[in-house]
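Team,

Forwarding the record for the chain on the shared tracking sheet. I've put the sequence and predicted structure together so nobody has to dig through attachments.
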Amino acid sequence: MTRRHDPHRRQRIIEAAVEVISESGLAALTHRTAAARADVPLGSTTYHFLSLDELLDAAVHTVAERNVARLREWALSLPAQADLSTELAGFIVLLAGEHRQTSVLAYELYGGALRRPALRAASTSWDEMLTEVFESTVDAATARALTAMFNGLLYQALVSPGKPEQADLEQVLRRLLD
């Protein structure tokens, strides 16, 4: 479909890129696959994103923003006297279960930063925001350690063949937080 005036075209291309990566992996994203998914001419993707790294960067930012919004929403919903180990374990189970596809996508993009330096700044924004949220409940050094542990536990939960057990995760988190 040809659209002469399409003020949302750039965002549709980004969303299409996120969908391609989510369904088929990072290697499947090309200007051509994004254009086809967004139903725009190939020239539109190269007009808005001069390189594939620029498109990937936009996709990483989009996914990171969504994940940060989910994280902030979770943090704001915590009761004042919440047991952080219990709540974090439950959040990991939620992210590995109900939000599995989004979590896998985030880690795929995060891992892409290993080989694509242009993605590093956007990828680290998740860690920075996670640490910032944790600093509202623990000191800065513990927040950084908790960020690393949280990421590791979530990654393990995503690659594990079984469903993560909240009690097992809680026990590990409690070791750090007590």
